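Aim 2 progress update. The chain analyzed this quarter is reproduced below.
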Amino acid sequence: MGKAKGEADLAGYEVLLCVTGGIACYKSADLASALVQAGAGVTVAMTAAARRFVTPLTFQTLTGRAVYVSLWQRPADFRSEHIALTELADLMLVAPATANILGKFAAGIADDLVSALGLSAAGSCPILLAPAMNSRMWSAPAVQANLAKLKEWGYHVVGPAEGRLACGTEGIGRMSEPDEILAAATKLLLQKPPRHRRQ
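Predicted structure tokens:
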């Protein structure tokens, strides 16, 4: 299927999509599909909490690639995955970015694969965060302080949006829609040529 008129061609770009544990994970599957349809190579890493909402098989099917779930995962050709995955990436995209992962990134904690990827990607490729959480969590001083620190360090942020939340209330905290995240990711990617052209 060809790209719609005006749709960016992301052929050659590599996106490391990190999925953390929130109900917005279902949107991350649509986002992965949209990135692939735009021509990007997409590799997915998931936290244990994310796998309680969506299975790795979903992302493996959408991307045609293995999904990474642990620092201790042993591929056939051994590599330190938290280093190797970010060395290949033109963009690290965290969607949803929960309050927990924002706190880990801001504190330099690397106790699982996704938090370790955040440390190894810093300074290596742009990092785009798509926050998603309850509005009271979003407005908490700790979350806002963590976000301010991350922005100061050069992290990029898209959203969150206002609307109905999973808890049934209305407010800010919804993860941005996949098309909005795709637009933000595309803008960042097209600032530079791909680091490693796929054969």
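The longest strand covers residues 91-97. The chain is about 40% helix and 20% strand. These observations will guide the mutagenesis experiments scheduled for the next reporting period.
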